[in-house]
Amino acid sequence: MMLSGLDLPKPLIEAYGKKGITELYPPQEECVKKGLLEGRNLLISIPTASGKTLVAEMAMHHHIAGKVNKGPSKGKCLYVVPLKALASEKYEEFSGKGVRIGIATGDLDKRDEYLGQNDIIITTSEKADSLLRNNTRWMNLITCLVVDEAHLIDSENRGATLEMVITKLRYLNENMQVIALTATIGNPRLFAGWLEAEHVSSEWRPVDLKEGVFYSDTIYFEEEEKKIKTPAKEDDTNLCLDCIEDGGQSLVFVSSRRNAEGFAKRMAKALEKSGFSDPALEDIQKKLEAIAETDMGKILASCTAKGAAFHHAGMKREQRHIIEQGFRDGYIKVISSTPTLAAGLNLPARRVVIRDFLRFKGGEGMLPIPVREYRQMAGRAGRPHLDPYGEAVLIAKGRDMANGLFEEFISAPAEDVKSRLDDESALCSQVLSLISTEFVKNNDDLVSFLKRTFYTFTNKKSSHLSDIVEKAVSYLEAAGMITKIDDRLFATDYGNLVSHLYINPISAEIISTVLREKQKTLLEIKRLGEVEDIKASDIGDLIKTEPAKTTKSVNPVYSIDSMKQVKSASAKSMLKKTAFTPEDISAVFSDIGLLQLLCKTPDMYTLYVRKDDLPVLESFYYAHEDELWMEISYDTMEDDFRVIKTAMLLDNWISEIGEDTICTRFGVGPGDIYNVVEGMNWLLYSASRISYMMAPDLKISVSEVELRMKNGIKRELIPLIKLKNVGRVRARRLFNNGITSPLKIKEANFDKLSAILGQKIAGQVIKQVEKEYGNINNTEIIINNTEIKKEHTLREEREDKSERRERKNRKIENQKKSAEIIKKNENFENFGNSDYEEEEKNTEQKKKNQKNKNTQRSLFEF
DNA sequence: AATGTGCCCTTCTAGACAGCATGTC
DNA sequence: CTAGAAGGGCACATT
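^ Those are the sequences you sent over. The predicted structure of the assembly is below.
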């Protein structure tokens, strides 16, 4: 079947023609035959790289051209992906084909309504859910929904969201065409049944895939055997060397980050020994070295120089991109990777070695990876148009094992997908959103809506769902997120906020319970202050803030006890304006307490605690016991320590401790810092909104931490950071030069400022300060200076592009100048919190002590 | 002297979505 | 409570 023979818009056909694609692959043809262009729902399970994208594009362009009879004349398409990186990848792929493409993820989006002008909108499933929660109007106009990796409906954490997005969208847009792209699944007919879809399934690939098991010196494929030279001792390196000698590249999947790094090191040595080298690798090495601030980065650079790299989530985005590109360009010969590369970007290689097929799971030991995941890895084998074939190889340690691996993975049937909507916490969140958006108005609505879900479709007889729905409703009601008037269900302001913030209702409850507790203490201080007429600062000591008890069970969801506690404080009395001094607030508020609270939330993922961390955590715990907000209890100790460790890292971050120090101190990679900080930013924003509602006197304190987290700065830099064009580095430079506030900038002379910031920036900063402080003569901290920033943006928009270019040039010059000054102020990095330095020394001593005594048992050994 | 090898023992274990409002070095 | 790689420490061999 020829592409040009189909009733499709020309730009699409031409764009593919340019890439040399004029004819449909067999599975694509089948999709067309089964009604792809007639608006039929399809469940398409075909291997990666066999042209799923084109299938989706054909349908979407068809819709956009208004050729599908259902719905409005001009169609609008939503393309749902599981990862942000995938969203960007698809954006690139879809662009330049005559239709308007928009992208909406947590990081990247335009104003919601503006987004709706596009023909195709690419989003993550969570963002799609969020858009639905905000009643985004254009969501009602979707005529074609494409769900990429739709089997992720089975994902333990995120499947429920995807299921609800599909269900809600189908409910909103009755005639919408649904195209679900999945990996091979065990129960496609059931899944297709729910979607009312035709099922298209195929094993066809553009490049042949041979799957086999390696044992001793031979790869045993299904139909052939292949002997491998074994110059090195280890099987894994030999497999890669063999492939490289043949002109290919390989990808090695391992189970842990350390294994990934360890393998890359070994592989680099082996490559060096084999005499392989490529001058192009030097450039890559230089790039990597330039951004390597940690040991890990240096190791990465040195391995990559030899042609072997590793890839995992502890790395910086930048490092990952360099490795990916180096591999795509063919310079890097081997990447050893954790599952990051299996699920993420499309980065094929001739030979894929699945070395570690067991993965550790806490509490259950080593478990074989799911077949679907094996397939996903194996599917990476073979670069279309570049490799004659692809090979996926498992490594066996004995003959029996070889047979076992064949059965376990290669010839094993794919797993079924099942609904994850029965997860209580996920369902709770979804029920709230349904009520908040008025998708449902009462209990009956709720039940009948949920009848449309995959869960009900697959569990027709079970009454389990209605049980947990009931539970969720009563939880939400008790928490004050929804109210029942007669039969009608309404979301309260609080409920709307929680739904809108997109945080788990349980997280919200944990946050607001504790913040209200704190607010209560503040009011108590005030009351005592009025009665006794003593200074508030003295009272801080009088009132011992009891650490809040979180609900203790493993599933803290439905403990009504904590709810009663919350209800006892009247919200109305709290909203009264009260005057508190900063001392009052600091008597009940602490950075580490807040961080601990938010890390305890199910929306935050926490760091793994190693043995070496325990003494550090212990001393930290004793040093800051009073400042902590949450109790550490015996039965949740492991979790509690993870929480403390994560909170500690974040506290380091807002104490301007350098990246490399944090990495070595906590045994994490730069990528982890980024992830943890990012997650905390989001929660801090949510906490500030919740505190505005529940504990208004703490709002400023929370917002301060939020601002510091965003920038990675100590409290003292807050006044400076608010200036445009001043980030953490410039703010610190100003501060170290005695300019500690905007007012000081006003007082400082221009020469001094431009020596610190460069002329251009100095000028801009002075302008801002004059505007703000022109007539005011005080040092009041301005918490919200978005106004200033808004004005700036408007002005910038009016400026010509040529002017911008000029600016850029000047900027470069300034950068050179300021580089010198930076050198002078290098001590910024060492500005670490002396607290921690001391703790570390203590720790070392304690370690020694422990080694000597080796008998000291404490609370801290789990 | 510097480096490699074999062996024992201990340690440790993947990833990543979401809000908001725009711009650091 | 599971499997096994990596890495450190150490003794000893090789360049």
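Confidence is low (pLDDT under 50) at residues 539-577, 775-862 of chain A. Chain A has five domains: 3-201, 208-410, 424-501, 507-704, 715-830.

Shout if you want it in another format.
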